[in-house]
Specification:
- This protein is of the alpha/beta class.
- The protein has helices spanning 10-15, 47-66, 78-90, 108-111, 113-126, 135-152, 174-183, 211-230, and strands spanning 20-23, 35-39, 42-45, 71-74, 94-96, 164-167, 187-191, 202-205.
- The strands form two sheets. Strands 5-4-6-7-8 form a five-stranded parallel β-sheet, with helices on both faces. Strands 1-3-2 form a three-stranded antiparallel β-sheet.
- Helix 2 runs parallel beside helix 8 (211-230) and helix 5 (113-126) crosses helix 6 (135-152).
- It is found in: Plastid, Chloroplast.
- Belongs to the universal ribosomal protein uS2 family.
- This is Small ribosomal subunit protein uS2c.
């Protein structure tokens, strides 16, 4: 894996409150190597470790993007949902930012049929065919389309299992993480002081509740993806 310089600024991370962990009573002892100190009963994350992990993640994302691989970004908690959709769309990644439907990856043979159903319904709506059935049936089709858009809209162009997953909250996305582990899909994950870093391939110690913190880590990751793609031979 190639090593690059990603201009990771510790002061910028401080301003985004990346260093703020959870209350000391909620901590996971496995996070001890990533904790700098505690202040007012709150653990403070070692940002030098965050910078090192983020740089390692960016190197991996850059390399994989240069090989034309598929990315899935997962973040369903309300602080992350809009950020995930925005970052994924800009970097042309797949994403899930609403409820994770159990078996979405481990039962892929079923899941992959649903985006096609979404596209078929969307085509019918765009061509005005929703206006042709009786009102009750048209309303039912509209509700079905809305549900598919809400939960599967971010993966409607995903034709196979992702090559790597970026996860914004280990605790919130434990089912998704478990499916990735079962299938051997590499994971990059924000890990706050209450998380288990051993469950992910590249843990990035960071505040996983703060919007600015999530956005900073996400933007850096998707920038690496975009840069890797831009250097890919045509």
């Amino acid at each position: 894996m190639s090593k690059r310089y990603w201009n990771i600024d510790l002061e910028e991370m401080m301003e985004a409150r990346v260093h703020l962990g959870h209350k000391t009573r909620k901590w996971n002892p496995k996070m001890a190597p990533y904790i700098f100190t505690e202040r007012r009963d709150t653990h403070i994350i070692n940002l030098a470790k965050t910078a090192r992990s983020s740089s390692e993640a960016c190197d991996l994302l850059f390399d994989i993007a240069g090989r034309g691989k598929q990315f899935l970004i997962i973040g369903t908690k309300y602080q992350a949902a809009d950020l995930v959709a925005s970052a994924a769309t800009e970097a042309r990644c797949h994403y899930v930012n609403r409820k994770w439907l159990g078996g979405m990856l481990t039962n892929w043979s079923t899941t992959e049929t649903r985006p096609q159903k979404f596209k078929d319904l969307k085509k019918e709506q765009d061509t005005g065919r929703f206006n042709q059935p009786p009102k009750k049936e048209a309303a039912m089709l509209k509700r079905q389309l809305d549900q598919l858009q809400k939960y599967l809209g971010g993966i409607r162009y995903m034709t196979s299992l992702p090559d790597i997953a970026i996860i914004t909250n280990q605790q919130e996305e434990s089912i998704a993480l478990g499916e990735c582990r079962t299938l051997g899909i590499p994971t990059i994950c924000l890990v706050d002081t209450d998380c288990d870093p051993d469950l992910v391939d590249i843990p990035i110690p960071a505040n996983d509740d703060g919007i600015a913190s999530i956005q900073l880590i996400l933007n850096r990751s998707t920038s690496a993806i975009c840069e890797g793609r831009s250097l890919r031979p045509l």
